[in-house]
Amino acid sequence: MSFFKKLKEKFQTNEENEEVSDKYKDGLSKTRKSFSEKINDLVARYRTVDEEFFEDLEEVLISADVGVSTVMELIEELEMEVKRQNIKDTKEVKQVISEKLVEIYQGDDDQEDHTDLNLQENELTIILFVGVNGVGKTTTIGKLAHQLKSEGKEVILTAGDTFRAGAIEQLNEWGKRVGVDVIKHSEGSDPAAVIYDGIQAAKSRQADVLLCDTAGRLQNKVNLMNELSKVKRVIEREVPNAPHEVLLVLDATTGQNALSQAKTFSQATDVSGIVLTKLDGTAKGGIVLAIRNELGIPVKLVGLGEKMTDLQEFDPHAFVYGLFADMLEEE
Amino acid sequence: MAFEGLADRLQNTIQKIKGKGKVTEQDVKEMTREVRLALLEADVNFKVVKDFVKKVKERAIGQEVMESLTPGQQVIKVVKEELTALMGGDESKIAVADKPPTVIMMVGLQGAGKTTTTGKLANLLRKKYNRKPLLVAADVYRPAAIDQLETLGKQLSMPVYSEGTDANPVDIVNNAMAHAKEEHLDYVLIDTAGRLHIDNDLMDELVQIKQNVNPDEVFLVVDSMTGQDAVNVAESFNEQLEVSGVVLTKLDGDTRGGAALSIKAVTDKPIKFAGMGEKLDQIEVFHPERMASRILGMGDVLSLIEKAQDNVDEKRAKELEEKMRSATFTFDDFLEQMSQVKNMGPLDELMDMIPGANKMKGLKNVDFDEKQIAHVEAIIQSMTAKERQDPSLMNAGRRKRIAKGSGRSVSEVNRLLKQFEEMKKMMKQMTNMQQGKKGKKGKKPKGLNFPFM
């Protein structure tokens, strides 16, 4: 139990954390409820830990979009652990389940994850947003711009989605709402050229952060992925060590394809972090486990609603806490 | 790799249960385990998978295996039939109202592709059915959603009805209806804002719009990459709005699209169209059969099974197999075999259909030259009956004659003869292996070259 105590203490140490975790508990209430309810259900239904129990556990995890191979691995490890500790009672196994999930989530070592955005002090930070169509790239940029601006940073947006109808207007509208400048060309122009202009503008205005929007593209479109690599190269050439973050925006309702997205976009642009959007729906967000487990890309931001303020920094402890809050509170 | 298709998954299992006359319970158990995993990896909802696998099990056990199929393929056949039955049926028609305008309402989650699909449908209606659609911008929430629809309208030179972002969506739609009647436009496509199915206020708004305009179609637009949650989304939208059809978007990606199956299973509403790209003409009528193979990730092993059923004379195939085993395989048999294979379709397509073929060394990326086959045929046809039966007769003179007769070079003739001998040797080895207990069946031995490669 000491593990959970530690986790709990972490939250009680400072109030700010408490707030964050409340927000998470709010936004994730669906996720948390259904997930831990199911595990509780499961535990209550079975007296003994047997094959049938594991089969049903497998289903609970799969229904959370955790990903088949991750689930298989987990079940295998659980079965071994149960054997090793000679656990027969399903109540005890609950503990092991949550520990294992946290372990998958955070990796074997206790190393703290870098979930903070890599923002530069006193010089320009460039963040590139990539992802498939309709995941919420532009909305995320709008929210992040709002957040950064309220922290007193000078932010500029670049409308690199020159393809989709209305995309430039959409970013422009966000710029108006947040009160930041938007660098844009007309529809159909070269995205790399827009981004280049954005960089020049950010340099000359001595902005703190440049947020670069790109058009959504499916990861199997080779030409479009090459276009994205070119955009990144332009940024690299103009500002050494930039882009400081390449954020892959993922829709939480996406299933197994999210892994393929993460892989392919990483190859094209060295994704440094993930923004998980639309987590306020009924989607379980289990895909995060699979991505962390298989690709090691950290989740940095989470979209928990449609309001301008509904973008949260990703805090793995809070996330895990939200996921297992019911279980923790019972003890 | 997480995205193994069912074909690859089944390879091993199929190998194990090859050559039995009947599908046993144990076979089916092993097979359905793989089917289950494949479906889950394709994002089919686990409950749907469960029911499905149960059905397949019941049907498959005890089935007689068709002569041209292995028990493994037999099970796949059952799987395919069940899948297609589950997916398919209804033709993709768009309703036509008795009294114009016909009203279509587009609903769905954020980012599913409603606006783009609205544009595509309008384009399709005009091009294919010669209709005059009106696009209605009822998404007043997302920034620039109206601009997006207006831009699409401009690209298509089609009228777009909008009242800005301050208007109430219900009013917008009512006014749009009046406008359509005035202008004699016969279709009204309503683009609504994306919303979560658990957002009661926004769902109520849709219900209100629906009650007001009484649409002939309510299309639920779903991202084909959706995971297990597809069931919840489809269920709630259907419960509250009684959806009339589904449009699956972003199918040009590499997702398996298991969501399609989940949605069909829980709503029993037809999937009518599929979005296949970002351009406005990239919308297709939905093909349940294609989707079934795609979900299973089997290349087209299914069509191969069908083709094998149709084209290969079963008795002849058996005889050939017997000859291969006894190594009395002659050039005549070879010619016969080639023509049977050719009947099934272009060779490279055929190779794609064979599960595991892409894993074989040497077979990958081989360009099959259909001409090459014609050449081989010509060479064989230039042989005398005796030569075909007994290639050992070949001497330099005969080779020269054959080369002349077929219009190929002597070296080509030589190569074919050599390859044929090697092939025979390999066949002998393979048969020996099959007779031995732990032989690696089905694996192509190293160095085996088909003469037409």
UniProtKB/TrEMBL annotation, chain A:
Family matches, as SMART domains: AAA, SRP54, SRP54_N
Localization per record: Cell membrane; Cytoplasm
EC number: 3.6.5.4
Family affiliation: Belongs to the GTP-binding SRP family. FtsY subfamily.
NCBIfam families: ftsY (TIGR00064)
Task of the protein: Involved in targeting and insertion of nascent membrane proteins into the cytoplasmic membrane. Acts as a receptor for the complex formed by the signal recognition particle (SRP) and the ribosome-nascent chain (RNC).
Subunit note: Part of the signal recognition particle protein translocation system, which is composed of SRP and FtsY.
Annotated protein name in UniProt: Signal recognition particle receptor FtsY
Origin species: Gracilibacillus kekensis
Lineage: Bacteria, Bacillati, Bacillota, Bacilli, Bacillales
UniProtKB/TrEMBL annotation, chain B:
SRP54-type proteins GTP-binding domain ranges (all copies): 270-283
GO terms for cellular component: signal recognition particle
Its EC number(s): 3.6.5.4
Binding site for GTP: 108-115, 191-195, 249-252
Biased segments, Basic residues type: 437-446
Alphabetized GO MF terms: 7S RNA binding; GTP binding; GTPase activity
Biological processes, Gene Ontology terms: SRP-dependent cotranslational protein targeting to membrane
Keywords on record: Cytoplasm, GTP-binding, Hydrolase, Nucleotide-binding, Ribonucleoprotein, RNA-binding, Signal recognition particle
Region entry Disordered, spans: 431-453
Annotated PANTHER family: SIGNAL RECOGNITION PARTICLE 54K PROTEIN SRP54 (PTHR11564), SIGNAL RECOGNITION PARTICLE SUBUNIT SRP54 (PTHR11564:SF5)
The name this protein goes by in its record: Signal recognition particle protein
